[in-house]
Recover the amino acids of this structure.
């Protein structure tokens, strides 16, 4: 195996979970319990509302640089229009940094466990779809299942 191939194997998209309060830490803690394939280059960053925006932006830039080994960074945020998302949008760079909002646990697990074979844009799409696909109105699902059983 050539040195370039070997280097390529160890590169991966960095993932930054960026939220209000302590949510990012708790999401990653919970995702670890469920099972992540790798925590390499996965970072939680919690936004403290008392921190100045310029300081937050500086910290965010530093974290992005630290976890980007050349394949880019996917930023997962909790709320579109919130401070974490608004700060991350200033780092959007085609093919290098993507932002997906509306964070949920399936989104994190999919993103972390699916990094191999994706560029940052396609990984962002995968994470977004996983987040959407795992939202249900539980009562409707149960009623639908019970209805099918009763119709047999």
């Amino acid at each position: 195996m050539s040195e370039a191939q070997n280097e390529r194997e160890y590169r991966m998209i960095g993932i930054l979970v960026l939220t209000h309060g302590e949510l990012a830490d708790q999401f990653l803690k919970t995702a670890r319990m469920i099972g992540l394939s790798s925590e390499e280059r996965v970072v939680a960053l919690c936004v403290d509302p008392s921190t100045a925006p310029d300081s937050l932006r500086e910290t965010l830039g530093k974290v992005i640089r630290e976890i980007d080994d050349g394949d880019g960074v996917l930023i997962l945020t909790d709320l579109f229009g919130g401070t974490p998302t608004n700060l991350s949008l200033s780092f959007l760079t085609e093919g290098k940094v993507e932002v997906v909002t509306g964070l949920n646990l399936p989104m994190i697990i999919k993103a972390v466990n699916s990094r191999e074979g994706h560029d940052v844009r396609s990984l962002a799409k995968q994470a977004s779809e996983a987040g959407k696909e795992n939202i249900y109105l539980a009562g409707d699902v149960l009623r639908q299942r019970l209805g099918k059983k009763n119709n047999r």
